[in-house]
Amino acid sequence: MKLRRMKGLELRDRVVLYCMMASTxxxxxxxxxxxxxxxxxxxxxxxxxxxxxxNSTDFSTKxxxxxxxxxxxxxxxxxxYQTTIVQGFRQASALYAEARSKSxxxxxxxDDAWIQMQYGMDRGDLTQVQRGTDLHNNAVQHYNEVVQLLxxxxxxxxxxxxxxxxxxxxxxxxxxxxxxxxxxxxxxxWSIPDFPPAGIPQxxxxxxxLIILTATFITSFRAFKDKVxxxxxxxxxxxxxxxxxxxxxxxxxxxxHADPMHLAINLMSFSFFALPLEGIIGHxxxxxxxxxxxxxxxxxxxxxxxxxxxxxxxxASGAVSGVIFSYIIYRPKAQIxxxxxxxxxxxPIFALAYIGYSYFMxxxxxxxxxxxxxxxxxxxxxxxxxxxxxxxxxxxxxFLK
Length: 401
Prior knowledge:
The chain is mainly α. It has helices at 2-30, 43-84, 87-123, 126-163, 186-189, 207-225, 227-233, 237-243, 249-252, 260-281, 283-305, 317-330, 347-362, 371-388, 391-400, and strands at 335-336, 345-346.
């Protein structure tokens, strides 16, 4: 009987492993990471797609500049209205506020078009490239609407200035056409940040995420059989607090998991969110979000359980939670699918439910799950994302209005 049970367990583990491998393969094919190509593109097609991609990234940058222009003039018009009570300033500020919000939405459209065209070109899928092109054309129309709003606001602002003791108004008139002319003087007033704008994809291929996924998969399976490696990588808060050692486990605990099912859930969640997120924010920022969330959640767990000699923690759940919340901040209108809700849940509702559930379960001692790591990993991912790109606060505010 004992021999049969052992064989049954081995068979179950094999089935879980095969299912996980098949799921990973399907995910890779779905996201365009398969080495197979749907079709070969000609050189002229590739050049045309690359030109459209460059055009979308260029427009995305211009949207940020238009947003900066609208933000600056909105503040000026609002201040002048409060001091002079001239209705023209109030009307201009309302138009600038609308342009400010619409410019961020247009920037997102250009970024989505960039991603669609890039992935379509990598996969040889002209249908996906066409979807990206259609998004780009739609975004150009939105861009021209922003330009028209700025022109209208500038005209009203000039009249308001004349009514207010002849003050000179800044020249914010933008020539229309195809939305390619920038407001005069914007380049000199707009300071380039240390990082590239976060919404502009820096590289369409998520190589950092794939490296992390592969390393976690290999190390976790080695640790299932190698108990020395398992003990070396697991987080033991008692050792860190009491003996001031094993600090490296604040990171290495994210490379191992308790069992194949634990590993499969984390890697599948990671694949769904990390691969597109890296394409949006770039390699360096993705590294900061992932490892920042992992280290921060590990530190919180260590601080709360440092006096418990029997407490141990492992798994990449804290880092994955940070990646998910970073993705939600960039895509607040996304639908998050789960096993209990396969049809999808709006991202803000999912975020609130996740935070509430993790907080409630962290107070319970009856479950062998590190909900503290989930909670603080999610919070860390959101905070790091906002710190790296403060403009996202405006996106979230406009979305919630």
